[in-house]
Design goal:
23% strand; EC 2.6.1.16; 24 strands; Rossmann fold; Glutamine Phosphoribosylpyrophosphate, subunit 1, domain 1; alpha/beta; binds 5-amino-5-deoxy-1-O-phosphono-D-mannitol; globular; 8-stranded antiparallel sheet; 20 helices
Length: 608
């Protein structure tokens, strides 16, 4: 979590740092701050709350200088407050640091530094870093940072400036993302590419423990022995507009509407009519696929929900047993995983700490790992054996939408690829599925036509405190996602249940007027779902059914019906999720919530 930026050049640093931070607010927005070298002194301005507060403060008392660092925070250690905001400095304010990650041994380091006469003001783990750097500082900032990092355990991406070396910015990463932007006579550091994209498209994607030094001479990258490292420049090809709202009121709405394109891009060159599926980035062989005894899909949040769909489709098409796990639980249950197991991790950001821990555990046990991720150069993409990129483009809203549908597409692609190699599905069937997949962008476009019905549903349910989402089979997997979306951006409590499970307990919660969203897009299970709907209707529930076009009989049971375009059951999650995304979006607006930046959340959860 948290976003860091840094600037070295010959322009005013403050506006550039603010601009960069505005593109990183999705990583956290509890507080923000900058440290800039002005007339040989480090000047720090920081405060609790959104970036706007920092901007106002800087307008009142500007800082002028051409070297600086900035931070937007998602609180881990220490509540959101001015004093806990970054940058953090040593007492004399000769060293300032911005940090994304967690220093796990900070208590021990703090005690030791305190015994050496250092003083601490905040409750953060980060504050040990400037003090450690100060402890080791003997006139060379790089050397001091290298020594300090040797003492630090945990994860970090840090940017450091020093009063005594005003013409230098040093940065390094370990298990937290960091990129370097290369401009003309200027350079940048940032947690993510959108932060520098308005200034440059040339970036270095840093690896763990690569130290970067920004000076007048340009960008230098060295290892911990100060040996120079040559790196390839990565040219960003996607449009800067992809990270802007482009006329939409919120990123979330824009990203919902980008789904047809994102789906198409994710299928391009992988799903081609009449041709076998070829996955250039996946090196697993036919023999290895045939030998697989188990697939583990591991992920968090929305990505986990895509994994639940993955389990259904891989088992159905490729006939390989699949376990789907919440990443934070996976490693603590001592999973039975070996060289004949495959792990698929799903992570939009490719940085989620729990998911990365699962990946590392699987590799330790000799399993092969495929990463399904949306971020080129992310930790997941670098550490996995194979990568299947979802080409959703940057997803800025905290609530995941286009990343989810492209993760679904990735699950279908992998399932079909395995089925093709294991010959568990006939060529005719494979072709039929592929053809329907190729029609999905159009179907999703059509699914947006439910907008009015969803706005009406929102108006009718805006005062509800609790809701239920029900479904069977793949509808249950989508119900999980619909429920999460509603909770995270409208703060309405909701539960998703497998429709058949309801009568084993939760039905006790159904009373007159309880809102139930029932998903009934799975033809084979339709009648059973309708029976479950009847069970809740007869106990007073107000039911909104989501069904495929043509299934008008749901209107006899449900109070209201919303229709999605007809697609084969297997692919239905891609269209079924659309009304649920829109419902959470309109509900969030109706309740006056912050759609793109819901309370207590951050886009990328890089702490366990
Ligand atoms: O970047 P990741 O896909 O690994 O993130 C996983 C979850 O944190 C994420 O999907 C989260 O649940 C979203 N806020 C849901 O909208």
């Amino acid at each position: 979590m948290c976003g860091i930026v840094g600037y070295f050049g010959n322009r005013e640093a403050a506006p550039l740092l603010i601009e960069g931070l505005s593109k990183l607010e999705y990583r956290g927005y509890d507080s923000a701050g900058v440290a800039i070298i002005e007339n040989g002194e480090i000047e720090v301005t920081k405060c609790k709350g959104r970036l706007k507060n920092l901007e106002n403060k800087l307008e009142e008392s500007p800082i002028h200088g051409m070297v600086g660092i900035g931070h937007t925070r998602w609180a881990t250690h220490g509540q959101p407050s001015d004093v806990n905001s970054h940058p953090h400095s040593n007492k004399e304010q000769t060293i300032s640091v911005v940090h994304n990650g967690i220093i796990e041994n900070y208590i021990e380091l703090r005690e030791w530094l305190t015994s050496e006469g250092y003083e601490f003001k905040s409750q953060t783990d980060t504050e040990v870093i400037p003090n450690l750097v100060d402890y080791f500082y003997e006139g060379d900032l790089l050397k001091a940072v290298i020594k300090a990092t040797k003492k630090m355990e945990g994860s970090y991406a840090i940017g450091v400036i020093a009063k005594n070396e005003p013409d230098k910015l040093v940065a390094v990463r370990k298990d937290s993302p960091l990129i370097v932007g290369i401009g003309k006579e200027e350079s940048f550091i940032a947690s993510d590419i959108p932060a520098v994209l308005a200034q440059t498209r040339d970036v270095y994607l840093l690896e763990d423990r690569e130290f970067v030094i920004l000076t007048k001479e340009g960008v230098k990258i060295v290892d911990s022995n100060e040996n120079a490292i040559e790196k390839e420049v990565y040219k960003v090809t996607w449009d800067a507009d992809a990270a802007e709202k482009g006329g939409y009121e919120h990123f979330m709405l824009k990203e919902i509407h980008e789904q047809p394109k994102a789906i198409k891009d994710t299928m391009t060159s992988r799903i081609v009519k009449g041709q076998p599926i070829k996955l250039d980035d996946i090196t697993i062989t036919k023999e290895e696929i045939k030998k697989l005894n188990k697939v583990y899909i591991v992920a968090c949040g929305t990505a986990y929900h895509a994994g639940v769909v993955g389990k259904y489709v891989i088992e159905k098409l490729a006939r390989i047993p699949v376990e789907v796990d919440i990443a934070s639980e996976f490693k603590y249950r001592d999973p039975i995983i070996d060289e004949n197991s495959l792990m698929i991790i799903i992570s939009q950001s490719g940085e989620t700490a729990d998911t990365m821990s699962a990946l590392r555990l699987a590799k330790e046990k000799g399993a092969r790992v495929i990463a399904v991720t949306n971020v080129v150069g992310s930790t997941a993409s670098r550490e996995a054996d194979d990568v299947l990129y979802t080409w959703a483009g940057p997803e800025i809203a905290v609530a995941s939408t286009k990343a989810y549908v492209t993760q679904l597409i990735a699950m279908y692609i992998i399932a079909l690829f395995f089925a093709q190699n294991k010959e568990t599905v006939s060529n005719e069937k494979l072709e039929e599925i592929k053809e329907e997949m190729l029609a999905l962008p159009e179907k999703v476009e059509k699914a947006f036509e439910c907008k009015e019905a969803i706005e009406k549903m929102t108006a009718e349910t805006v005062n509800e405190k609790d809701m239920f989402f029900l479904g069977r089979g793949l509808d249950y997997a989508v119900a999980l996602e619909g429920s999460l979306k509603l909770k995270e951006i409208s703060y309405i409590h909701s539960e998703a249940y497998a429709a058949g499970e309801l009568k084993h307990g939760p039905i006790a919660l159904i009373e007159e007027g309880t809102v139930v969203v029932a998903l009934g897009t799975q033809e084979e299970l339709f009648d059973k779902t309708v029976s479950n709907v009847q069970e809740v209707v007869s106990r007073g529930a107000k039911v909104y059914a989501i069904a495929k076009e043509g299934h008008r009989e749901v209107e006899k049971t449900a109070n209201s019906a919303i229709y999605v375009p007809r697609v084969m059951d297997l692919l239905a999650p891609v269209v079924t999720v659309i009304p649920l995304q829109l419902f959470s979006y309109y509900m969030s607006i109706a309740k006056g919530c912050d759609v793109d930046k819901p309370r207590n959340l951050a886009k990328s959860v890089t702490v366990e």
